[in-house]
Amino acid sequence: MHVEELTAERIDDLEPLWSELREHHGEVGEVDLPVRIREDSWAIRRGHYADWLGREEGFGFVARDDDGRAIGYAMVHVMGPGATLQTGPRVADVETLSVASGARGQGIGSALLEAVEARLRELGISDVVIGVMAGNDDARRLYEKLGFKPFVTELIKRL
Ligand SMILES: CC(C)(COP(=O)(O)OP(=O)(O)OC[C@H]1O[C@@H](n2cnc3c(N)ncnc32)[C@H](O)[C@@H]1OP(=O)(O)O)[C@@H](O)C(=O)NCCC(=O)NCCS
Q1: CA atoms of 118 and 114, how far apart (whole Å)
Q2: Residues 3-38: tens digit of each pLDDT
Q3: 42-99 pLDDT, tens digit each
Q4: Does residue 26's CB lie within 6 angstroms of at least one atom of ligand 1?
């Protein structure tokens, strides 16, 4: 396994991993909403990734196996400062972290987050957030182990 930078031309390599994440959210999520169909979900997500990379407002890392197959990725969006807490001028949001179901629990997610943190240090960005869906306790455990603390709790209501 090796970790490499994501380039805009290779965004579509991520689709199967995004789809697995979407399914996982459907399984663990505690909210009574169905997940979007695969194509629609990827079209929305892909649009964001292309936009962030195109505007240089984000970056990503891909983990590949020895055959070059993408087995995990992290995608980061760099935003402006929060208005209440005194963050630095830029705050990074790890928008996606996904590892292929057959490759979880082998350190790939941790390696991707390490690559993200190393890049953020290079960029002089000292604040990073990561969202986790209510019910995704396994992912949350990993983030807390790596030093993330609970921050915002977002609630949802369907009218
Ligand atoms: C969460 C995820 C990215 C972590 O990547 P990973 O490569 O499995 O994680 P690592 O091997 O580096 O670290 C292992 C830790 O991850 C967590 N973890 C989450 N899901 C796991 C899984 N299916 N298998 C094993 N560990 C998992 C645990 O905290 C584990 O620590 P533990 O062994 O002490 O319990 C990955 O499991 C995944 O893609 N899960 C499904 C999608 C998802 O939840 N993404 C995060 C959205 S916020």
Answers
A1: 6
A2: 999 999 999 999 999 999 999 999 999 998 999 999
A3: 999 999 999 999 999 999 999 999 999 999 999 999 999 989 999 999 999 999 999 9
A4: no
Tokens of 99: 């590892």
> Is residue 96 a contact partner of residue 132, using CB atoms and an 8 Å limit?
no
Beta-bridged to residue 128, according to DSSP, are 92
Q: By the 8 A CB rule, do 102 and 21 touch?
A: no
pTM: 0.97
- Mutation to probe ligand 1, out of 138, 145, 148, 154 (largest number of atoms < 8 A from CB): 138
Ligand 1 and 94: CB distance under 6 A: no
The β-bridge partners of 126 are: none
Q: Token pair of 6, please? A: 């994501």
Q: Within its chain, how far is the Cα of 143 from the centroid? A: 12
